[in-house]
Design a protein that fits this description.
The protein is an alpha/beta fold and 428 residues long. 21% of the residues lie in helices and 38% in strands. The chain has one domain (3-372). It has helices at residues 3-15, 27-40, 56-59, 120-123, 128-132, 140-148, 374-382, 387-403, 409-425, and strands at residues 84-89, 92-93, 106-110, 153-157, 165-170, 177-186, 191-197, 203-212, 217-225, 231-240, 245-253, 257-266, 272-282, 286-295, 301-311, 315-324, 331-341, 347-356, 361-370. Strands 2-1-5-7-9-11-13-15-17-19 form a ten-stranded mixed β-sheet, covered by helices on one side. A nine-stranded mixed β-sheet has the order 3-4-6-8-10-12-14-16-18. A hairpin with a 2-residue loop joins strand 1 (84-89) and strand 2. The termini are far apart. The relative contact order is 0.10. The mean pLDDT is 93.
């Protein structure tokens, strides 16, 4: 049996138990996604961008159980932030735990309710960015989410809302299998902060498409984990017009398997895109960040900043590419991926790439992995800092560059406190 046929067979098995929503304005986009998916099949271990991450658990017909995490004794991330909350439990909207969606400067509709609504702007976003970004690298799980998503939010930002919009994902079934699709349209000069947190499901597949118009600003902060056996494949597709800003930061704490894809297109001049992440894992932890940034406008800036802290056999993966197309002069592209290995059993696999077709650019990439600096550790110990406290300080210092990508200091401090808590629980 050839690899191609195996991928098609895997697809047939994966979608056999899924319902295909065809009603409403997004029916055509779903049908197109299913047709594209049927042509490419599901990803396999031999695919170039899956060679470091085995997709088997993400494409299997059944969902491996993931033990529920007890949050009774722990405050959830972002709890101290004033925000507009939307709560989903095993993929189903929970109105009782959610806030009234009325918020000046923003329109919000759930995907499950949008089929019969006349949402003209969403036609230009839903499935459109995902389709554009299937080339040159195919992302079948993103097409799967476009075709079969049962829930999500459609957000149109026309002003500057007074507080962030927060998507909270809760898991109550140890075998839940959830597929989401979100669309965000940031109009000219508008600005929004979107928060995401929670385990979502035993297996979670999602797509977020973000269209930022001229001068618009989009901030995205996401916290994944504490559920140790969770498996997830997430995708963020963004399209930026002139002078638009896109910033996304993801904290991943534990989880058996996480694959985060991000594809950013800087189409207009003077656009800015920053994608960053901090991943910390102990033991059965496999974390993959795969990022593709395409520069097409002039004088655009992009930053990819990814840091991972790994111990007890944890695995970190980074695959990042900067593409500078012809005519994208004065591009400023920066990429850094680093791992701190707290023992000899953990590993970090990296594939940084630059592809440049313009002659007046400034682009750089770097990737390193190593242990805690013995000299720095000795310096702290010689000044009376206990060993474990010194190690924690150095880990936080290592992650600081990624955390610095969060503009809101209150949110950044909340994330920092979560990392401190993780370090306290996992002291060497």
């Amino acid at each position: 049996m050839g690899v191609a046929q195996a991928k098609l067979d895997a697809l047939a098995t994966r979608i056999a138990g899924l319902s295909f929503p065809v009603e409403g304005w997004h029916g055509a986009a779903r049908a197109d996604a299913l047709a594209r998916l049927s042509a490419m099949g599901l990803p396999g271990k031999r695919d170039e961008y899956w060679r470091y991450t085995d997709p088997a658990a993400l494409i299997s017909a059944h969902t491996d159980p993931a033990a529920l995490f007890d949050y009774a004794d722990e405050t959830m991330v972002f709890s101290g932030i004033d925000r507009l909350k939307f709560v989903f439990v095993d993929g189903v909207f929970d109105a009782a735990q959610s806030d009234d969606p009325a918020l000046a400067g923003v329109e919000i509709v759930r995907l499950s309710q949008a089929g019969d609504a006349d949402i003209e702007w969403a036609r230009d976003v839903y499935g459109v960015l995902e389709t554009r970004d299937q080339n040159p690298v195919q992302r079948p799980l993103a097409a799967l989410a476009t075709a079969f998503a049962t829930e999500g939010v459609l957000i149109r930002v026309t002003g500057r809302p007074s507080k962030p919009v927060s998507l909270i994902y809760r898991q109550e079934s140890d075998t839940s299998d959830v597929i989401f699709h979100h669309c965000i349209k940031v109009e000219e000069g508008a600005e929004i902060t979107l928060l995401e947190n929670g385990p979502a499901a035993a297996r979670f597949t999602s797509v977020m498409e973000v269209d930022v118009a001229q001068g618009g600003r989009f901030h995205h902060i996401r916290a994944q984990g504490r559920a140790h056996q969770r498996r997830a494949a997430t995708h963020v597709f963004a399209r930026l017009a002139a002078k638009a800003l896109f910033k996304s930061f993801t904290l991943t704490v534990n989880g058996a398997l996480t694959r985060n894809d991000a594809v950013i297109e800087l189409l207009g001049d003077d656009a800015v895109a920053h994608v960053a992440g901090a991943g910390v894992g102990d033991g059965a932890f496999h974390h993959d960040d795969t990022v593709f940034v395409s520069h097409q406008g002039q004088r655009c800036e992009s930053r990819q900043v990814f840091k991972k802290v790994l111990k007890n056999g944890a695995v970190g993966v980074f695959q990042g590419k900067i593409l500078v197309k012809a005519g994208a002069q004065k591009t400023d592209g920066y990429q850094i991926s680093q791992a701190l290995l707290l023992d000899e059993d953990s590993q970090f696999l990296a594939k940084p790439e630059l592809e440049i077709y313009a002659d007046d650019v400034k682009c750089s990439h770097g990737s390193t992995s190593g242990a805690i600096d013995d000299v720095a550790l000795f310096y702290l110990r010689s000044r009376g800092v206990p060993l474990k406290a010194a190690q924690s300080l150095l880990v936080l210092a290592f992650l600081a560059e990624a955390l610095g990508e969060i503009e809101d200091e209150a949110i950044a401090e909340d994330i920092r406190s979560r990392l401190e808590g993780w370090l306290a629980r996992h002291e060497r």
